[in-house]
Please model this.
Amino acid sequence: MSTALSALTGTYTIDASHTRIGFSARHAMITKVRGAFNEFSGTAQVDGDDPSRSSVEVKIATASIDTRNEQRDGHLRTNDFLEVEKYPEITFASTAVEQVSAELFRVTGDLTIKGVTKPVTVDFEFQGAAKDPFGNERIGFEGSTAINRSDFGVTFNAALETGGVLVSEKINLEFEISAIKNA
Model:
């Protein structure tokens, strides 16, 4: 393991103001609708000497969904989709971290949406480490994965006259993470 990664060992807190947890889904089979969650928190235990001993936990407030359309966001918060009153959080807890290459880390874990937990794997590309102007040690990762929303009990749909459905089953999850090392 490189000395550079070894120096990154520690506990990190996700910096929500410099992080994006987003998603995209096909709408009407012809275009992608993109959105994000505006409220979330998370921590990572990074072991630079042995990345397999690293771990990640994230909690996302489902009511913070934002697709830049109030009417659509309101519908996504209902029982048809996220049922935010009954299920206020989406959670992820890693079960394994594997270093695939110098810059690529495969994180597997349990994703829970609407009370349904399924394993998912996200390939994260290490974007680097830096000390910001305030003296904070930061690390950055970007990654994505695809899930089938019906696997998590998110099954609402409508058939289209021309064939197909209104909302794709496949949802792409997107992560652009900046985390600050705890003192």
